[in-house]
Design brief:
Mean pLDDT: 80
Order of helices and strands: HHHHHHHHHHHHHHHHHHHHH
Structural class: mainly alpha
Number of strands: 0
Low-confidence stretches: 478-486
Number of domains: 2
Radius of gyration: 22 Å
Oligomer: single chain
Distance between the termini: 31 Å
Strand content: under 5%
Length: 486
């Protein structure tokens, strides 16, 4: 594959990955706002209590095999079918365990309703297992357009169902029904669009080969999943359902721009970087470029959300959610660094060093749990500041391991992102001064957003940031292409 064709595929992959990701997350984001206005923070916290159990179950279903299929060169139909049947078997076992554990989960939180809710929403574990291989095949082909179609149709149809149930007062069940409908429709469409069905074959040799790589990702994923959702578990048990509702909303909003945009980029570039895994020079160049581009987009978004947190919450969720504002501001500082961590993680998988990936996760999560334990007694705000501290520890550890497989260093990465960080801080200062002049939430969002965008773009153009030119040329190219098709 030539450099130009690789670049073209990368651009198309990012574009369709963006459409697929934001079609799902965007509508779900809107739905969460609608439902949050219809229910109380404590009712919303009830659903958040299940997040750790569902996330752990879903991690077992994937078992790292999806990334193993993508990473493996010369994969066969036997590999695909082996992964498919293994995932189905594991999903049934895991759901059975979750079904049996439902009463104990309800007792743990002292919420009887969770028994029934857990057993219904847990069906998503089995449903999603049927589409893991189809999705991996489409990613290998860089066919995010097909995934976008399936996801968009699924989220629109299920979204309509969810809104209807929420409107008629079904509360938490609106979320449960919407989630099951979305997974079912998406899985059904992927079977149709991907045009792949499993063969009647299973190979233990294939399983062992894929498991050698995927098992380490499974353990790493479990550690990360448990840690990320541990906060919901601890807050739900230590504090109140209302406190968990505030934290959950703040965490969801803080993660939305950072994690979604980073996931779009890493998911699109992972199969491309896998093709370059033996070309160190090109791999090193793309690695730094991806870090700069992701930072150039995410840093200002997170800074803007931090500054505009209060008018955002007032306008979209109402004053009953104001307690989540300081939590959202702190968490924006924590998640602004997510792209640096994710892209360094990604490079370890590209190089086939899932052993380094696992070692890094073990070290990071040992530090993370220590920080969590130390901050619990001091309340929610200090607990969130602990996440900020952890983000710096995470970057330090993962860059240490990334240096072993690629020509990078702490200094090199800091030098590349520091000008972008400084530009974002200047932009945020301008936004803060602007919104201090008005009191109405809508005007604060409007004026703050406009000033932030203009200030960021003007300084980027004046200082000749390469990333601005790349994004501008891409947008201009797409605009010209669309004009020609009219």
């Amino acid at each position: 594959m030539t450099g130009e064709s690789l670049k073209t595929k990368a651009v198309k992959s990012v574009m369709w990955s963006s459409i697929e990701r934001f079609s799902v997350q965007g509508i779900q984001f809107i739905l969460s706002i609608v439902i949050a206005r219809l229910v109380t923070p404590s009712e919303y916290g009830l659903i958040a209590m299940l997040s750790i159990f569902l996330a752990i179950a879903q991690t077992f279903i994937d078992s790292g095999f999806s990334n193993a299929l993508i990473q493996k060169q010369g994969r066969t139909e036997t590999d695909n079918s082996t992964v498919f049947y293994f995932n189905i078997a594991v999903s049934i076992i895991v759901y059975g365990m979750l079904y049996g554990a439902a009463p104990f989960i309800a007792d743990f939180y002292k919420e009887p309703l969770l028994t029934t809710v857990t057993r219904w929403i847990g069906l998503n574990i089995i449903i999603s297992a049927f589409s893991i291989v189809q999705r991996a095949i489409l990613i290998i082909k860089l066919d995010f357009k097909t995934q976008a179609k399936a996801s968009l149709i699924a989220v629109i149809l299920s979204g309509g169902v969810g809104i209807a149930f929420a409107y008629y007062g079904y509360g938490v069940w609106a979320l449960v029904i919407q989630a099951i409908a979305s997974n079912f429709i998406n899985t059904f469409l992927l079977w149709i669009f991907a045009k792949w069905t499993p063969a009647f074959r299973y190979s233990w040799q294939s399983f062992r080969t894929l498991f050698a790589f995927g098992s380490k990702l499974l353990l790493s994923g479990l550690l990360h999943t448990i840690y990320v959702n541990l906060y919901n578990l601890v807050i739900g048990r230590k504090f109140s359902a209302m406190d968990l509702g505030y934290y959950n909303r703040a965490s969801t909003f803080a993660q939305f721009p950072s994690i979604n945009i980073t996931s779009i980029l890493t998911r699109a570039i992972y199969p491309i970087q896998c093709q370059l895994q033996d070309d160190d020079e090109r791999l090193n160049a793309t690695f730094i470029q991806y870090i700069r581009i992701s930072s150039f987009v995410i840093f200002p978004l997170m800074t803007g959300l931090c500054v505009l947190s209060e008018p955002f919450i007032r306008l979209f969720l109402s004053d009953k959610w104001l307690e989540s504002v300081p939590l959202l501001q702190i968490l924006c500082i924590a998640y602004v660094w997510f792209p640096i961590m994710a892209i360094n993680n990604n490079i370890l998988n590209v190089k086939g060093r899932s052993d380094y990936f696992l070692k890094a996760e073990i070290v990071k999560k040992m530090v993370a749990v220590g920080i969590l334990i130390a901050t619990i007694p001091w309340g929610l705000k200090i607990l969130c500041w602990g996440l900020v501290l952890y983000s710096f520890c995470d970057m330090a550890v993962i860059i240490h391991y990334a240096k072993k497989v690629i020509s990078t260093s702490y200094i090199k990465q800091i030098k590349n992102i520091f000008p972008i960080l400084l530009l974002s801080v200047i932009m945020g200062t301008g936004m803060y001064l602007t919104i201090s002049l008005v009191r109405q939430p809508f005007l604060q969002l409007l004026l703050g957003g406009v000033v932030g965008i203009l200030l960021y773009c003007v300084i980027a153009i004046t200082m000749k940031f390469e990333e601005f030119n790349l994004l501008y040329k891409y947008i201009r190219h797409k605009s010209d292409a669309n004009d020609k098709t009219l």
